[in-house]
Amino acid sequence: MKLTEHYLQLREALAAVDDYQAIQITIEELAEILHCTPRYVKRLIKEMKSNGWLEWEVSYGRGKRPTLTFLKSKDAVTFEVSKLHIETGAYKEGLQLLHTLNSFYQQKLNEWIQEQFGYIEHRNSEEQLDILRYPFYHAIHHLDPAHLKSIHENHLADHIFDTLLTFNPRSSAVEPHLAHHWEVDDTGKVWTFYLRKGVLFQHGRELTADDVKATFERLIETPFHNKWMIRHIKEIRLIKKYVVQFILDRPEYLFPNALCNKQLSIIPMEVYNENPEQFTKLPIGSGPFKLTKHDDSMLRLDAHSSYFQGRPHLDRVEIITLLQMNEQEHHPFFHYFNQVTDKDQPMAWKEIEHPEEGATYLSFNLFKSGVHQNKKIREAIRCSINRDQMCRDLLGERYFPADSQLIHITENTYNNPYDPAKAKRLLKEAGYNGEKITLYATQLRKNAHLKKEALWLKDHLENSGLVVEVHVVPIDELIRKETLAEADIILAGMALGMDIQYSLLRFFQLPGSFIKALLGPELSMTFQKELVHIQHEPNSLTRYQLLIDLEQLLKDEITYIPLFHRSHHVQVNQASPLSGVTLESYGKVSYKKLWFKT
Predict the structure, then answer these.
(1) Residue 126: helix, strand or coil by DSSP?
(2) Range with the largest mean pLDDT of 142-151, 389-398, 579-588
(3) DSSP character for 592?
């Protein structure tokens, strides 16, 4: 690597010299350029000549100077340096050089990078590893399960941690996981869980009821976004080594559903207490994969050989962090993003589609005074938005109009309400006189926000005569009361999990969904009573209908306008050795089910 750096330094200093153009220059002059001794320069020249990078001819006689001829261009050497960085795991350094190359070598490097992703079979004298390697466009800063936010963080946590129970989307039921059995008393307040024996954390210690108690005591004391899920836990009792009991302060028949949430994963508290900051980077769980590397360049997951549900077939997953790219950019090698494929060859491909429950929507802040308090104004806004056109203009075939957080409700009820003439009539009836309406769009991270959607809405609302001011605000900032009080309308999105009932309940209450927090004093009281009623209801079908009715109330009052759903698609090369590809919650591929044919 040092030799190539010296060669690039020479080419930079002698940039006016073309390839294959002979120049006369002395060892002493080269030593001055490279800031090293003449003796060391002679050694470098010898090595560069041996590599075929340059010619060096010494002419003897008074006044005669040596002749230097460059045989390899700066881009050709930079290309090799970039490859070497990437091969040794320094992806950040290697890709930084990509932008310094000319178009020929950029394309060449892109093609080579493609070959580094997908299925990798690593063999040496001692072992054979089946590795899945793919790029991702932003860094994961922490993986403490209590503070998971993004879909990708939840996806990774699903492979590192385990919860007491799990939700099966095929049966639409909560099923055993770390707990093999549970029961509730007649009051709906006392829940007892019986743990599996022999479940091992990834550092080798057995998981017991002590870990469950310690994990939940930590959650009770820790501020986190889904704190409402455990707010009714009054006491946690250790009954036996493998038996733990939760005492609630009121009946809550969705409590088992809450325990399927990844934020409530069981962790070894002695590891967390030893170094909380380190735990966020390299956490320990009991899941099928252990996080063994987490830095600026990659996340590496290795199979947990003692996993209680059986060792994964896949040996390793390497997620390469490519910070300078984002999901809006489409370089050739980025076709691996959110896909599991082999090399990009003109073969038969199979597309797997997973429509995502949840929707992007508008929510009105009825705690703030303003023209949006007038229901006719809100209805005019609804009539000003052509949801079909919005999907066509901004989002393409992967998105489709919504009338609910649930796709099957949309399919049954959606009727495009777009009616610009009605919108203008309603504004006139409401006495609207050009008052400014503030629209706040959410931002999850640097390159994940709803800015373009907000600007589209602004243009179309202004076509009806409304005056709209757009702000894009990080979601952690927006949930603060001081910031939220400035917004008339929030543009946000929600992806629901596999447990639709509990996801809807979560949607209605989560601060970052901007529903419950914006309803205004009068509607908030009605809304809260209905939420309590739902959580007290023991019958699942009745609970589900109550949740649907609650969303309909929001739509009838026009406090909430669903805009669009999205669908995830993965292209799988059927000629690839990769098998077991399925899209699960949030459209992600489960590593637990992947395996490779020979």
Answers:
(1) coil
(2) 142-151
(3) G
Q: Kindly report, residue by residue over 404-447, the tens digit of the pLDDT.
A: 999 999 999 999 999 999 999 999 999 999 999 999 999 987 77
Average pLDDT value for residue range 387-415: 89
HSE at residue 257, side-chain half, CA atoms within 13 A, is 21
**Following DSSP, what letter does each residue of 499-514 receive, concatenated?**
-HHHHHHHHHH-GGG-
| Structure tokens belonging to residue 65 | 């100077």
Neighbours of 163 (CB within 10 A): 23
Instruction: Name the pTM for this structure.
Output: 0.77
Burial of 227 (0-12, 13-18, 19+ CB in 10 A): middle
**pLDDT value at position 348?**
44
CA distance to 109, 292, 324, per residue, from 102 (Å) = 11, 37, 18
Q: Any idea where the domains of the chain sit in the sequence? A: 2-107, 145-323, 353-567
Contacts of 327 (CB under 8 A, 6+ apart): 137, 337, 447, 448
Q: Which of 111-125, 239-253, 418-432, 448-462 has the lowest mean pLDDT?
A: 111-125
Backbone φ, ψ for residue 130 (5° rounding): -95, 115
Q: Is 350 helix (H, G, I), strand (E, B) or coil?
A: strand
How many Å apart are CA 335 and CA 135, to the nearest integer? 9
CATH 3.10.105.10 fits 353-567, yes or no: yes
Whether the domain at 2-107 and the domain at 145-323 fall into the same CATH topology: no
Q: Confirm if 569 and 352 have CB atoms less than 8 A apart.
A: yes
